[in-house]
Amino acid sequence: MVTPMSMFYILLAFNPRTAWEKMALTRRGYGRVFACHLIPLILLVSVAEGIGLCHWGKWQLRFLRIKEFTPTSAMSYELVQAGLFLGMVVFSTFVLQRIVETFGQRRSSLPTFKLMAYAFTPFFIAHLLNLDPKMSPWVSWGLGVGLTVWVLYHGVPQMLQPDPPQTFGIYLSAITVVVLASGFIRIMTGTYLLGEMDLPHSYLSHHYPAFVGVVGKYLN
Question: 49: which residues sit within 8 A by CB, 6+ positions away?
């Protein structure tokens, strides 16, 4: 059975302009976008990636080994990453909305939130590539960001409806927000997966030993 959301995903992949036109006409609020799109999508990706980490581990080139994850460590990592993903969407919405307002576009933040929530769809789906233990986290990030930038091209004019002279400037701003926000999270999560995050000798460990001890217990 083809649901409205699955149809939207199909259109977003092959005909993004039509997908955004349909989405602009819907009356989804914040709660429905969270409950019917963001949370289920992030949960699906997190569960799949977590299962992959438990069964196949992750290749760490620096140490020439496959790091094995226990169910507890994989679940803890995915919970942290899922929280970061939700925060990324909210943060991106807030920043882009402030930028849009500098262009003289005084509108509700809901269209901006919907733009960010749905534009990040290919970014989240690209994380399924991490099921391959030898897939670099940076490859999945790069592919996901590239597809997000592509769908934003049609999403910005349809969802935000800026004045034509301002459209490209807002689009470039949206790209910058997406790359910086997602890149920051990928640095944190990617360095952990690749074994390059040394919590015992980090700044946090020195100043907050109890906190790092609890985090390390579940992530290792």
Answer: 78, 127, 128, 130, 131
CA 5 – CA 36 distance, rounded (Å): 9
Q: What is the DSSP string of 186-219?
A: HHHHHHHHTT---GGGSHHHHH-HHHHHHHHHHH
Tokens of 67: 């790091």
Residues 6+ apart with CB under 8 A from 214: none
Listed residue (194, 202, 164, 170) closest to 53, CA to CA: 194
pTM: 0.85
Query: Residues 6-63: pLDDT tens digits?
Result: 666 767 777 788 888 888 888 889 999 999 899 999 999 999 999 999 999 998 877 7
> Residue ranges of the domains in the chain?
26-219
